[in-house]
Amino acid sequence: MNLTLKIWRQKNKNAEGKFETYPVKDVSPDMSFLEMFDYLNEELINKGEEPIAFDSDCREGICGSCSMWINGRAHGPVPGVTTCQLHMRSFKDGETITVEPWRAKAFPVIKDLVVDRSSFDKVIAAGGFVSINTGGAQDGNTILISKDDASEAFSASMCIGCGACVAACKNSSAMLFVSSKIFHFASLPQGKVEAKTRVQNMVAKMDEEGFGDCSNTYACEAQCPKEISVEKIAKMNREYLTAKLT
Amino acid sequence: MTTFLSGIFTRSVGKKIAMGITGLFLISFLIVHCAINATIFVNDGGKVFNEAAHFMGTNIFIRIMEIVLFAGIIWHIVQALILTLDSRKANSVKYAKFDGKANSKWYSRWMGLLGTLILMFLVVHLLDFWAQARFTGLGIPPVMIDGKEYENMYGKMLEVFSVGWVVVVYILGMISLAYHLMHGFQSAFQSLGLNHKKYTPVIKLTGTLFSIFIPLIFALMPIAIYFGFLK
Amino acid sequence: MSDIDSKIPEGPLATKWTKYRSTVPLVNPSNKRNIEIIVIGSGLAGSSAAASLAEQGYRVKVFCFQDSPRRAHSIAAQGGINAAKNYQNDGDSVYRLFYDTIKGGDYRSREGNVYRLAEVSGNIIDQCVAQGVPFAREYGGLLSNRSFGGTQVQRTFYVAGQTGQQLLLGAYNALERQVGIGSVTMYSRHEMLDIVKIDGKARGIIARDLVTGKLERHFGHAVLLCSGGYGNAFYLSTNAMGSNVTAAWKAHKAGAYFANPCYTQIHPTCIPVSSGHQSKLTLMSESLRNDGRIWVSKKKDDTRKANDIPEDERDYYLERRYPAFGNLVPRDVASRAAKERCDAGHGVGASKMAVYLDFASSMKRYGTIEANKRNIHNPSAEEIDRLGKEVLKEKYGNLFDMYKQITNEDPYEVPMRIYPAVHYTMGGLWVDYNLMTNVPGLYALGEANFSDHGANRLGASALMQGLADGYFVIPYTIGVYLSNEIRTKAISTDEPAFVEAEKKVQDNIDKLMSIKGTKSVDHFHKTLGLILWNKCGMSRNETGLKEAIEEIKALREKFWSDVRIPGDANELNTELEKAGRVADFLELGELMCIDALHRNESCGGHFREEYQTEEGEAKRDDENFAYTAAWENKGNNAWDLHKENLEFKEIHISKRSYK
């Protein structure tokens, strides 16, 4: 396959960025999108140019590092996959592909396609935990949890924190990410103890970090590589109301 | 009240809860408004309608609710402006390529525009009817029903909807309303935390039917009058 | 006689740890506030250690090269975590888990450490449940278990196929809680590039801020390396792209012994390499071997499609060689057998470096059973296939989908192509019972140390060890050292030792940047990977290892004269990061070969072709090699060997056979 790539290049946080166009020849349809980038980078290095910086680590779709905005969509055109699990056979020979970094005020660009997502960590630090210290936990089987509750909790805790929801949202809202953590704990007895403070603290931190509001377009759900449902957001709203009203 | 609800609407989650509450309130108003106006389809020369209009214009509870309604509209609009500004702040750099249609409905993304169109329609509509009834007078003689004198709101409708371009404006207004509701109805439930695997499909279906039928019934009023189906 | 002291406490095995734990020196809470601990890496071991130590009152700094601690590669572990809970009433116990682990490690691990691991395994589950890890449950609400390789009891706890992710997020949440409180300072996108030693003790690190390229000096009363394994020395592995040995290797060069570097585990069922551009390998769960039959063509260089090869021309080589265990032989045996067939010219697919994992006969078998269940008489072949496919889908649907996504082949229609791949390293920094290396104040936890898995790790034990070290071992054992450090005031990072260490790191970066050669870092990494894979991989021999050592030496020289790193050192420069890591792999690779060459026996993941039985099985030499090989770096790529003899007081050493 031969492709034309239009890629956002930006030297650093403060520099002006712009698109550069790169023709890429002889791409194998079996390459992953990131392997195609490796291939392009190898060529750039051989030509003495600076390779394109991008985040990537596990390349199995679970670490949440990779974060490319491909042809107008987070993680590209195939639903339910991360960029590292997107393969070139999903593109047409001769196609022009536009690649941009995640765009949100809370995710400033560090270089090229690399953005700073540390605001996510800060939101978790504000309340995304059960406040217990190591040691002294009772036997695991003394807390009975129904199979359904466990899988409900897992359906939210499987979030990989990649930030596609923020990237996809026209308001740069982080509600799917934040609500996933709140939903996870709200589904389990262990999380109920501090449910009220958790939701208030995490929502406050989310706002402070500069994420936008939710207008229920559900683009986050459509582009989440783990296909996490917006019902998590509704649950967060409910938790928030409960915390405020009771 | 203030301490009880302190801070509830200042956070992002609270803001959309406010949108949801005001939205649902306005939806409830639409039902009442639509039900009353639909009495013109009795085609009795406006007898029932004028009686109902009189009740609405004079009942003290309704008059208080009218103030609440305007407050609701203003709150809905102000909240929408705040949300839009927040969104601008949170998302200052736009993508060069944005495949919006792949992820969401166009009317979900353009609620602000639809809302503005509805507001413009609302101004025209209020000037046509409400402002005159309340302040300047309708400018047409009252009617006698069962020996009692009533303001002839029905006659006013016949007069207003005899003008072609006004009818077009009303139809466009109702189309905007339909799409606004298409998103807004189910969105309000989501914002208030009501999303459930079993019930959400029902809410969504109800919302779609509501978004189609209420504006349709409203739109049929000027159409029916303009083409002389109602006299 | 061992010339190094493992400090295993005296006394009966069963009470060693409890007694020791109750008698180790403590640090008073008010003193803890003045003690700083540096943790490198934020995987299961790092996050759990950092959170637990911070909860106790220590001031902790955590460093990770990823943009968030949640991304550490522990996140990719699939299967589960072992614990001797005996919830299934099937005879499990601390002793049985201990025994299985020692035997699984081919009798090359320490009894004391492994027993402790088995002892605390139950606490890990309790801790994780309390944190809100959504473990799989039974209908009655109790925790669910499944079986795993190498054991006869059900002791594996799991969260779907994402156990590592959920456990790591639990530890990460605990860590972030401490960050929020202020007791942990988090340094993401930072890479440790050297250890600072003062008077022989580890006193800090030099780290590079990967965004600005600035070098930073950090003081700590103790330094914990939780930096994972070195599987990426092979270039292609199931490790993450960024997984590296640099932290451990710098510690090694600063004096810490590196133990058993030749013990690498190679997992038999991975999606094979499809092209030279492939960046990493993906695991297909071992459970597939329950229903898949492994085969190649009897004909050499057969170019026919799998479905065109008639039944009698297929060689089900595992069933042929190991009739008793068939396709379910242990990982190391299955991996070696696949390699043997491919090397003999029977490999399949375009690359010829793969074997088939075929579900056709299972599909027929399940289809027939299903037809009987549904009372369908004389079902057609299509009907049987359809019913069989339904059963397979229910059991392995997500794995089949993942395979299809990557290879674009439908495993319901054609056999899967699989090949072994590197995925874990048992070797690592030598540590004593306290998890301290031979450098005072320098610790190694999790995959970064060598301690618990011997020559081969059992499935679902890596998560157990990482969390055991972090949650339940280091919080106690670190007191042994730190109780003597309460009078040590924070040392200024302007001390000469810090200045010198930083200069050394800076010089190294300058040197790399000044080469301005012609080849990319990846070029050298790939070449090194191939050398190691071919000569120090699934099977090794003396000639190959000797060649490999020479080749690696030459490659290293080439690297230092011809590598090309574009860009600047004072900015985010991924090529520079990679170059530093590959430079370390180029040294470690040699030591791996040296270790493999010196160990004249076959055990676990280390298979020396010269030391095998007539049937081609591994032949251990307990008389001469029942020891841990701890290598001391003498500089200039020269090493001295120290031996820690392994004493088996509880367990009787015996032979493994799967015939």
Question: What does this molecule look like?
Answer:
- The complex is a heterotrimer of chains A (246), B (231) and C (659).
- Chain A is of the alpha+beta class.
- In chain A, 36% of the residues lie in helices and 11% in strands.
- Chain A has helices spanning 33-46, 118-125, 147-157, 164-168, 175-186, 189-192, 195-208, 219-223, 231-245, and strands spanning 3-9, 18-24, 69-70, 73-74, 96-100, 109-111, 114-115.
- Chain A has a five-stranded mixed β-sheet. In chain A, strands 6-7 form a two-stranded antiparallel ribbon.
- The longest helix of chain A is centred in the C-terminal third of the chain and has 15 residues, at 231-245.
- The model of chain A has no long low-confidence stretch (mean pLDDT 96).
- Chain B is mainly α and 231 residues long.
- Chain B has a single domain (12-89, 105-226), classed as 3 helical TM bundles of succinate and fumarate reductases (Up-down Bundle), CATH 1.20.1300.
- Helices cover 70% and strands 3% of the residues of chain B.
- Chain B has helices spanning 12-37, 47-58, 60-90, 106-109, 111-136, 153-160, 164-191, 200-226; strands spanning 143-145, 148-150.
- The model of chain B has no long low-confidence stretch (mean pLDDT 92).
- With 659 residues, chain C is of the alpha+beta class.
- Chain C is built from 17 helices and 19 strands.
- Chain C starts with 12 loop residues before the first helix and ends in a 14-residue tail after the last strand.
Average pLDDT metric of chain A: 96
Determine the N-to-C terminus distance of chain A: 60 Å
What percentage of the residues of chain A does DSSP assign to strands (E)? 5-15%
Radius of gyration of chain C: 25 Å
The pLDDT mean of chain C sits at 94
Interface with most residues:
A-C, 80 and 77 residues
Q: Examine the coordinates and then state which fold CATH places here, giving the name of the CATH topology of the domain at 267-421 in chain C.
A: Flavocytochrome C3, Chain A, domain 1
Globally, the shape of chain C reads: globular
Low-confidence stretches of chain A: none
Helix content of chain C: 25-40%
Question: Which CATH-level-2 architecture of the largest domain in chain A?
Answer: Orthogonal Bundle
How many alpha or pi helices of chain A? 9
Radius of gyration of chain A: 20 Å
Strand content of chain C: 5-15%
The main β sheet of chain C shows up as:
5 strands, parallel
Q: What is the rounded distance between the termini of chain C?
A: 36 Å
How many DSSP-defined strands of chain C?
Answer: 19
